[in-house]
Write the structure tokens for this entry.
Amino acid sequence: MYGTSHGKIRAAAAAALGGLLFAALPAQTAHAATTPANPGFESGATGWSTYSAGGQNTASFTEAGGHSGSARLSHWSSSAYKVETYQHLSGLTDGTYTLSAWVRSSGGQNAAYLALRNCGSAEQRTDLPPTANGAWIRLVTSVKVTGGACTLSLNSDAHAGEWANFDDITFTPGATGLAVKGGDLSTLPKNEAYGATYRNASGATGDAMSILKNSGMNYVRLKVWVNPADGYNDKAHVLAMAKRAKALGMKVLVDFHYSDAWADPGKQIKPAAWAGHSYTQLRTDVYNHTYDVLNALKAQGTTADMVQIGNETNAGMLWPEGSTDNWSQLAGLLTSGANAAKAVSSGTKVALHLAKGGDNAGTRWWFDNAVSRGVPFDVIALSYYGYWHGSLAELQTNLDDAAARYGKPVLVAETAYAHTLADDDGLENNVATADQLVTGYPATPAGQAANLRDVMNVVEAVPNGRGMGAVYWEPSWTAVTGSGWDPADPSSGNAWENQAVFDYNGKVLPAASWFSHR
């Protein structure tokens, strides 16, 4: 259903991916305008042209029901069709420009995308996601204009009955892009120790981190536990992994759980060594632990680029003292961690992390409380799994609002999707049945790739350049006996292997190519 081509792609590559629909466009007459005419389609198709190699121009039309106004552009036909609606601008000052559009889509097309072409540089495009319940999504794509002209292009290559809607087109100076294209590789050392092997797209065996780096990954997220039962995810392993990442030219995000094992919305268990400590002592514990790990990283020449003070702290951390039932104490603990991070390196970004990707009300409630109590932070980090945390439209609403409300960049600190529903180790996976899947994204390599692509595209579209990027959770956690989820139980299995970006033969999957997303 979905290809694995980049949303921003050279036109030459599109042919190999079945997406070069309109290479033989007729000569175009440039509008003597630097902004698109009739951007909301309120005047029908005035100012826009239609092209279809198969003579299917009627598949592009305007109708009632716009995003902000009364009309929209639609692509639809009762038979299979390929159609482009475009507008060519001239008189532009050379530089970088961004096309923005509000879109909806049935999904399932061979291709449906925004494109910027004939701009004097490589064609750029962004694919439309399948949209739930008729919700509109804003997409962007950027291009470097050389020669003063550029074509704004809206495209569909669809089966009978599939549709796309477009509205509220803008074309403005400025660039978009993602600074963070990361992966949480916390379990990689344990997997390697128990014999996991990894292969690149050509089938050659190699180092998983290097394979992902070569796919475009530029950030490695590493969780740290205080005294884990199996010895993994401790300070020593974080130091070793940070050396590997930095040696490859990648940045490092350290994720403090302040626990001996998993900390998440359902459990925030104090480390055993801190179990009897008072709130006042816990503040000191948080400061000292945070400082110790980060200072050791700095001392070996691998200063953390970003840190999370807590992991998925929806209901607080270090329960019960740091529960959201006692916000003043939670704020004190968070502040202790943030202050320790800045004491080691003022350039390290401090992130606060919630598992509330599509929950705007919950995100507002939490961060309003943090801000009102003076908790310092640089980044708003959110987990977003489409099968748990709402639609892409709800994610977009939350990211856009949080960025604007608090004036901070936003990061999807965790995301993932299944490439199969098959099991590889006998433990039922977190996503195991078809009814758990997100509509429009099958549990296939292509569906996994499309899901990551669309999450990244939503982050990229956050206004004012405040969408930092996305981190894929545990892309290398394949099923290996001994490398299970429970640090206290060597026989525990892995409920995540079908969401890794390596298949059951250890070969990297197409989703990894999205780490090259511009």
